[in-house]
Design brief:
Distance between the termini: 28 Å
Helix content: 25-40%
Family: Belongs to the diacylglycerol/lipid kinase family.
Order of helices and strands: EHEHEHEHHEEEHHHEEEEEHEEE
Pfam families: DAGK_cat
Protein name: YegS/Rv2252/BmrU family lipid kinase
GO biological process, one term: phospholipid biosynthetic process
Structural class: alpha+beta
Number of helices: 9
Cofactor: Mg(2+)
Shape: elongated
């Protein structure tokens, strides 16, 4: 009988998984799996459980938010023969689930977890020591997506993000940084300046909002989408930043730089706090971000 390891964060999404877990287990068993359940107890518990208990699993399914998914994927990446991943989103943002077209309905997601199409997705490596699923970022807006009240998101959508982002522009703090990146064609580009925000991502939405990432994002092309915002020097610069975020213009302006890259290096003069999939990723002066193409298999509806 096939073996399934089910990683559950009972606190994610106000604990909604508690009322559906028997129905979900029934789906797994009827699909022919011998199921072992692990309820997470603390930070990094999902990663540790995958490393200890996932070696013999044919499928690992996790239920939780982006943080739980990050830990699960990080654990799978440590296994010699990585099993396939299934995902039941239950957090407040679920950016990666949205990118994979996995529904928020837990029963539907559970069915996809065991019967969905296999999609080989890229994984990000941060400084050669940590992994991220869809975003690595620093600066002014890094936590905005996660502190914006859900009622504002539901009512105003993208504009809610901008409203909260603008609030965070008042105590502006920049980081002087040199950014070097390898483009799709293998050529190397670089820029240097004072940045108030930067993100490297592989998702169609960030913080629950579509449109912050431009272009046709492909999750298995070996390419990250990057967005870097310079420190505004004049009221017009400030206006250009807000306009870019609010209107979502396709064109860059002097304060906003978008890139597409296989590999990115960021070297700062002072230590900078980074977040990985919404969780603290460390304080660094030298950062190397690499795209590990098609490194993990996940059941989804994404083609």
């Amino acid at each position: 009988m096939k073996k399934l390891l089910f990683i559950v964060n009972p606190c994610s999404g106000k604990g909604k998984i508690r009322t559906r877990i028997l129905d979900i287990l029934d789906i797994f068993i009827k699909a022919g799996y011998d199921v072992k359940v692990h309820i997470t107890q603390r930070s990094l518990d999902a990663r540790e459980a995958v490393i200890k208990k996932g070696k013999r699993a044919d499928l690992i399914v996790c239920s939780g938010g982006d943080g739980t998914l990050n830990e699960t994927v990080s654990g799978i990446m440590e296994l010699k023969n990585p099993p396939v991943l299934g995902y039941i989103p239950s957090g407040s943002t679920n950016d990666y689930g949205t990118s994979l077209r996995i529904p928020k309905n837990m029963i539907q997601a559970a069915q996809i977890a065991v019967r969905g199409d296999l999609y080989m997705a890229d994984v990000g490596m941060f400084c050669g020591e940590r992994y991220f699923v869809y975003i690595a970022g620093f600066g002014a807006f890094t936590e905005v997506s996660y502190i914006t009240p859900q009622d504002k998101k539901n009512l105003l959508g993208h504009q809610a993000y901008v409203m909260e982002a603008v609030k965070n522009l008042s105590p502006l703090k920049s980081s002087h940084m040199k950014v070097c990146w390898e483009q799709e064609d293998g050529s190397i580009r670089e820029m240097e300046g004072d940045f108030i925000f930067g993100m490297v991502t592989n998702a169609v939405s960030v913080g629950g909002f579509k449109g912050l990432v431009k272009g046709n994002v492909v999750l298995n092309d070996g390419i990250f989408e990057g967005l870097f915002i310079h420190m505004p020097k004049t009221p017009m610069d400030f206006s250009n930043i807000v306009s870019y975020l609010l209107i979502r213009d396709e064109e860059e302006n002097e304060c906003v730089k978008r890139i597409r890259a296989r590999r990115i290096e960021c070297h700062s003069s002072e230590p900078v706090d980074w977040t990985l999939d919404g969780e603290f990723g460390g304080t660094k002066t030298d950062v190397v971000i690499e795209n590990l193409q098609e490194r993990i298999g996940i059941h989804s509806l994404h083609k």
